[in-house]
Amino acid sequence: MINILNTAKAVFCFSLIFCVTVSYRVFCYLQHGMYIYPSYLKMLVSARICWALGKALIWLCSIKMLTTLISVVNSLKVKAMRAKTFTYRLKYITQLLLDMTPAQREQVKLNIQSIQPEITVGDIIQPIFDISPQCPHCHSLHFNKWGKSGSVQRYRCKECAKTFNIKTKTPLAKLHKCDLWLQYAECMELKLPLRQAAKICNINLKTAFLWRHRFLEAQSEQYKDKLSGIIEVDEFFLAYSEKGTKKLNGDRVARKRGGEVDKRKRGEQVAVLLSIDRSKHMIDGVLADDTASEISSHLEPYIVKDSILCSDGAWAYVSIAEETNCDHKRLISNENRVQDKIYHIQTVNGAIAHFKGWIDIKMRGVATKYLPHYLAWFRESYAGLNFQQMLVAAYR
Ligand SMILES: [Zn+2]
Predict the structure, then answer these.
(1) What is the whole-number distance in angstroms between the Cα of residue 170 and the centre of ligand 1?
(2) Do 143 and 155 form a contact (C-beta atoms < 8 A)?
(3) Ligand 1 center–CA 187 separation, angstroms
(4) I need a labelling partner for 360 at 20 to 30 A (CA). Which of 117, 182, 286, 305 fits?
């Protein structure tokens, strides 16, 4: 095709020059009755020169075509060589992997995962939505794609005609700057205080606070863990707090953080239940009152039958152990804190001390109404969730 085009160009040039020359010669003959050759046209008027010029053009075009052809052949050769080299390298790598121990292969897998292209929030959330896609307004399964809002896909329901996206009616609904969520979730994985997280993500404190509690909302409302095997349980108390509230409830007087709490006074302390098993499953709950029925409602549904319950011996746990057919290890006296070297409540007490320290020192105290959120955060951290898993948990 290129060749034909170039030949046509050359023929056109030749014809143009030939026509101009002939026309000029005819014009001169008609005007003067003889041929006149101006000096600058002497070279052009010869048909031989025109023909030579045309040939030269055709030759140049052919050279160009030939070089193009050579470069195409060369690039194909290079591609074939690359494919051959790649196959050879692949065989070599496969052999190396086969020679490795399982631990070394696991290390390779982790290294590969760490160099994967950066994932987006959509990459994490979309697959969860795709498991059971439905309209969040009327639960219809019939909807169409309806453009995009930023990087988020929008849909339109065929039945209720309302539009929605994958975040609609989830705890993450109407939150903006979703490109920063993963970075924020990383801050949460590191359990960073609010100011630090806001500075890292370059967002204001209000947004950081809103994101924190939206990310923890879903997890604070549902327990998925079941406790089995050796289960440790204990309760602890935290001072009631209305941190961040401008107007305190009733006749309460503001107390300085870390100040003395009148333990005899009702409502000055909040009871919290914490229970963990040896597989790192955790159950927690803020108790409305430190009573047997409250403890039972927060713990009993999550205990697998025929487990072993270790407690400080409170009567509430006796009835729970009976109801769930658990062997109850009552670790009451100081001399009897460990039974048969494995039954104790030291793990749960360690977790309680850790939680209290985190809340008091790193978080500088939290409002009691947000305590379930902080317990959820602590639970996620105790289970070793990474930032991506924390985001998945927030979406549910
Ligand atoms: Zn609908």
Answers:
(1) 15
(2) yes
(3) 36
(4) 182
Instruction: With beta carbons less than 8 A apart as the criterion, state whether 329 and 310 touch.
Output: yes
Q: Which two tokens stand for residue 378?
A: 């602590």
Residues 6 or more apart in contact with residue 215 via CB below 8 angstroms: 171, 172, 184, 185, 188, 390, 391, 394
Q: Are 343 and 230 in contact (CB under 8 A)?
A: yes
What sign results for the dihedral spanned by CA atoms 99, 100, 106, 109? negative
pLDDT at 43 over 80: no
* Model pLDDT, residue 122: 81
Ligand 1 midpoint to CA 163 (Å): 8
Tell me which residue of 336, 225, 340, 307 sits closest to 274, measured CA to CA. 225
| Neighbouring residues of the ion ligand 1, judged by CB less than 5 Å | 135, 137-138, 140, 157, 159-160
Distance CA 116, CA 118 (A): 6
Is 210 a residue whose pLDDT tops 60? yes
Reported as a single tens digit per residue, the pLDDT across 299-329 is: 888 999 889 999 888 888 999 999 899 988 8
Strand partners of residue 156: 144, 163
What pTM was estimated for this model as a whole?
Answer: 0.64
